[in-house]
Write a structure and sequence with these properties.
alpha+beta, single chain, 7 strands, 4 helices, globular, Alpha-D-Glucose-1,6-Bisphosphate, Chain A, domain 4
Length: about 160
Amino acid sequence: MTTYPDVGATTPAERAWSPRDGYRAFEKTIAIGRGDEHWAWASEQVLRWGIKTRSGFHVKPGSRVVEGDEHRLVALVWPLRITEPVVVVAVVDEPDRAGFAYGTLPGHPVSGEEAFVVHRDDDGTVNLTLRSLTRPGRGRWRVAFPAILVAQRVYRRRYLRALAR
């Protein structure tokens, strides 16, 4: 069971997004390449957790994303190893849009959802959109929330570079 009630709120299948109240909302879209070859590579990477692994996370198990599957994301933040339990809450795999969203499970440092979507324009530009809804986690993580927000900014920069060529 997720640690938040608004499951699917990052709507990865939709181009337009209206964030929910009660969360720190983030959305950013950048161009990451052009052409069919980059599209094929980037869409496969995102659907196989490549955006996370190319940003420094370990994903257990590291299989292709499937709605309903639970995973453990492991961040190595020297000297700590932080495990983030998540569940895939939405997957989109269309000819011009591919990605997924995961929601937090008990034990995750924050509560909310994060989505990673690659999509291409009519002119062949391949884009990456990040979306997240975040609020403090429960228990010991609540005290660490300000530091977690700093780490979140660092990882977002990594995500935005992970699929660019």
